[in-house]
Amino acid sequence: MADVKELRCVIGDCRFGVDEVSYTCPAHGELGTLDILYDYAVLRSQLDRDGLSDSLAANCWRYKSLMPLAPEAKVPPLSVGWTPLYDAPRIAQKLGLRSVCVKDDGANPTGSLKDRASALVLARAMELGLSTVSTASTGNAAAALAGLGASLPEVDIVIFVPASAPAAKIAQLLVYGAEVLLIEGSYDEAFDLCLETCAAQGWYSRNTGVNPYTTEGKKTVALEIAEQLNWRAPDVVAVSVGDGSIISGLYKGFYDLRQLGWIDAMPRLIGAQAEGSAVLAKAFDQGLTAQDVKREAVSTIADSIAAGLPRDRAKALRAVRRSDGRFVTVSDAEIGAAIPEFAQLSGVFAEPAAAAAYAGLKRALNLGMVSSGESVCIVSTGNGLKDVDRARKSVSGGARVAPNRAAVEQALKSAGLI
Ligand SMILES: *Cc1c(COP(=O)(O)O)cnc(C)c1O
Ligand SMILES: [Zn+2]
What is the 292 CA–ligand 2 centroid distance (Å)? Predict the structure, then answer.
């Protein structure tokens, strides 16, 4: 187990013991999200990078020694993480890059990267003996908590989602048997209501940017990317950004690996936001601090990255600045077009928010933020089957054919196949 040295506030120099504070820094409130830090000198002497062999769990728990959990801690049985990392030479060729790989986190049990955070938060809830866990979500964090929660008889899950979430995501929550409140408002409103209810009821809050275990769970994606590339981190990692928690998790994972001396350099993090939900991109370009960020009304087809007040804004701005990365914005049209293009070049079907990372990489190349000699990893954060209605709008074809040979021949001729 990794002994936690301290929880450190991202805003001020406030430090706490692991059992002292559950959520954010009492002095800095919601903005004062916490980093879970270890005694890296001790970990360096105890852990052997090359000893993380095939004999270890083929899921995120292969890094339990880098997580804030006791070795004997119970974890959810569903297998989260250790998702495939695919080489994508056709994307590299199309974009003129040295190499491109795709981390397919849509292959997680409930279809998104959010499973990593929910898995660790549930393990922590069991450690604390808390039986009700709740979150607000644009959909995927909720599905992750509901699905992993369904694998554990001892916890009940309560979900706050906007009623406007895609139908497949809501169906997932109900199928898993969570208590679901469809809030007739925005994600931001659902979030505030969930926080207030958790505080009033004493429920464990999984909320993004509030519970520091979410970042520690999400960091495992960075640990995996590094290990799957034989401990050579890519030059650039492209990922989409809503609340900013995933990009903060990526930063933390690579940060831990740098502290351990397991990788030589921190990748530059490129955060892709939708033009209609670009609070962090604008803050970054204007040189604002997290304190200066104001809530905005947002709108995008990429529901998973619609966030009017990004809850992990402090960590996300820091991650991009410290990694010498950038934010980019992409239009809904670019996101829509990216879904089939990315799928046809890589074989990975991404939901709109996940395809935004690919669109964002293209934008970053156009702006000269990435150069042709570099290696890039695109994190595909969610499975395309999460929102088939949106995907269907990005493709044509599928003409109807009468059930006879002549009609089939006619169809093949018009398709130019025969
Ligand atoms: C949550 C999510 C994101 C964005 O992550 P943030 O932590 O909110 O920035 C991107 N893609 C998918 C599929 C997601 O579910
Ligand atoms: Zn503080």
Answer: 16
Nearest-10 Cα torsion for 114, 119, 122, 124 = -110
> What does each of the 418 residues of the chain score in pLDDT, given as a tens digit?
578 999 999 999 999 999 999 999 999 999 999 999 999 999 999 998 987 765 678 999 999 999 999 989 999 999 999 999 999 999 999 999 999 999 999 999 999 999 999 999 999 999 999 999 999 998 999 999 999 999 999 999 999 999 998 888 899 999 999 999 999 999 989 999 999 999 999 999 999 999 999 999 999 999 999 999 999 999 999 999 999 999 999 999 999 999 999 999 999 999 999 999 999 999 999 999 999 999 999 999 999 999 999 999 999 999 999 999 999 999 999 999 999 999 999 999 999 999 999 999 999 999 999 999 999 999 999 999 999 999 999 999 888 999 999 999 999 999 999 9
In this structure, what are the phi and psi dihedrals at residue 76, rounded to the nearest 5 degrees? -60, 145
Take residue 291 and report the two structure tokens written for it: 């304190």
3-class SS at 22?
A: coil
For the chain, the straight-line distance linking the first and the last C-alpha, in angstroms and rounded, comes to 62
Q: Which residues line ligand 1 (CB under 6 A)?
A: 112, 114, 140, 240-247, 304-305, 307, 351, 353-354, 381-382
Flag whether the pTM goes above 0.90.
yes
Q: Which ligand is nearest to the CA of 13?
A: 2
Q: Which two tokens stand for residue 202?
A: 């004493």
